[in-house]
Amino acid sequence: MKAKQMFNPYLAATLAILTYIYWPDTAGFWQSPERQQLSQQDLVRQARSLRIAPPEINDRQRQLAQLGQRLFFDHRFSADGSVSCSSCHKPELDFTDGLKTAAGMGTTDRNTPTLINAYLLEWFFWDGRAHSLETQAKGPIEARLEHGSNRGQVAQTIALHYKESYEALFDPISVELEHLLKSPRFHASPNPKAKTNMSQRLASYGVATLSDFSLQTEFIQAAADQKMSPYAWFSQTMLHSESPPSDWIAAYQGLSPNLQKELDQIFLNFARAVAAYQRTIYAVNSPFDQFLAKLGDQKQAPQGFHSSFGEEQWQGFKVFAESGCINCHNGPLLSDQQFHNIGLPSHAKLDIGRARGLLLAQTSPVPCEAIEPQDREACMELRYADLENFEVMGAFKTPTLRNLAKTKPYMHDGRFDSIDQVLDHYEDHDQEPAIGHRSESIPRFQWSDEERQQLKLFLESLQSEWNILQVSRQETNKKSAG
Fold first, then answer.
1. For the stretch 155-182, what's the b/e string if a residue is b when 16 or more beta carbons lie within 10 angstroms of its beta carbon?
2. pLDDT in tens, 153-211
3. φ, ψ at 156 (rounded to 5°)
4. How large is the C-alpha radius of gyration of the chain?
């Protein structure tokens, strides 16, 4: 038989007295100077985690960068000689263009990201379809709305105008290919892999995750007008980029396997030189960086701060950290370099983001490991990523917050013209994303007017003059003006 439990008043009284003596008052404990000191130390630790260092390059990379700088500003690599890399990445605008969406041979659907501190990036383009700067540098050349060119024209321009500089760094151009490149206009481009099966799977999933009923209705009506299924219409409008002209494909296919391989190699070497130049562009001396340098190994924020980073900016960082902005905007670039659906509603054009990037990467005519074999881990992530994972639908790469003041407009489609508009979006808890589901990692923000002002002051303190390792700012600005 179970013994009856009895209340012992003497034991209860003893426990109450011991608790009173040895257990600190809860409210007093959490508001004590010791607790505030621990909070300051945690803030300082988080601030210190955002430190950034300039790039380091060897002599070979420096030589590549010197060639790459010339290629970067050369308009002859575009279809009609009107577009260079610097057309969208203007040095005077911190290597952006100030437009909502980039404009080359035509107008694209995406905003131009800055190239400053690109040496620290892990993924490239808003959808992360490139895993290296080399892959990124190739993309715009053969994109119809950007340079609108092809690898044949790239090889021809190099052979005619950069042969000596090119062959000082890479294998010489073969006599056979050089003979072909002397023709008036040599255009050659491989045909992209068919995307049919993969894109149809992704299309069926994409239509199902359209969260806006009016968009579903719009797609169904548009498909009916074209006598297509909603899935086929989604696939055509969201996923397929135009193939190169048939005569470019025919010219490429008419080359021997060895000449195709050599042409591809010249195109890759072009990208390696441009990428080497892009790796030399950095900005690491913002008021916030100067504050971090003064902070050193101290456990508390220094008294007096810096002339451009004072108490208000520090309070802004506190708001930034404690409200959860730092969950995604962390590390040296203030970006976790991951992909999130931040709940942007329908705007100018529906964009499925990371889902499209993965499709393009997985159907690229050149396997990513053939470009930069050392980046195998990132390459494998691209190759085997699940296209039907709802988290990639409508997700975009977390942008860097460095040099934010001079790189507006903001978001992947340039929809916001000011930091205030960005903050307004994050405080609007009723918005639903046009497609997919809002990432659970995005906090529900709510700031007071004072906190918003302090947060903006902190974000503005991330602005820094850019530098280039191997050439002066004056040379780069001169090339841009020319």
1. bbbbbeebeebbeeebeebeeebeebbe
2. 999 999 999 999 999 999 999 999 999 998 888 898 887 665 555 555 555 555 555 55
3. -65, -45
4. 27
- DSSP of 56-90, one letter per residue? ---HHHHHHHHHHHHHHT-GGGSTTS---HHHHSB
Over the stretch 343-388, which tens digit does the pLDDT of each residue have? 998 776 778 888 888 877 776 655 565 555 556 677 777 766 766 6
CA distance 389 to 300: 43
Mean pLDDT of the chain: 82
Q: Which of 357, 339, 341, 351 is nearest to 127 (CA)?
A: 357
Question: Cβ atoms within 10 A of the Cβ of 477, count?
Answer: 13
Closest CA to 352 of 128, 192, 142: 128
Determine if the peptide bond prior to 409 is cis (ω within 30°): yes
The CA distance from 426 to 419, in Å, is 11
Query: Within the chain, which residue ranges are assigned CATH 1.10.760.10?
Result: 40-54+284-351+394-467, 59-190+241-281
Largest CA distance in the chain: 105
In sequence order, the 6+-apart residues with CB closer than 8 A to the CB of 157 are 74, 76, 77
Give the C-alpha separation, 397 to 67, whole Å: 30
Is domain 59-190+241-281 annotated with CATH 1.20.1250.20?
Answer: no
Residue 21 has pLDDT above 50, yes or no: no
Q: pLDDT at residue 88 above 90?
A: yes
pTM over 0.70: yes
Nearest to 236 by CA among 202, 210, 209: 202
Architecture of domain 40-54+284-351+394-467: Orthogonal Bundle (1.10)
The token pair that represents 330 in the structure block = 């962390």
Nearest in space to 301 (alpha carbons), one of 33, 45, 51: 45
Instruction: Please report the pLDDT score of residue 429 as a whole number.
Output: 76
Residue environment code for 139-154, b if the CB has 16+ CB neighbours within 10 A, otherwise e:
bbbbbbbbbbbbbbbb
The helix/strand/coil state of 306 is strand
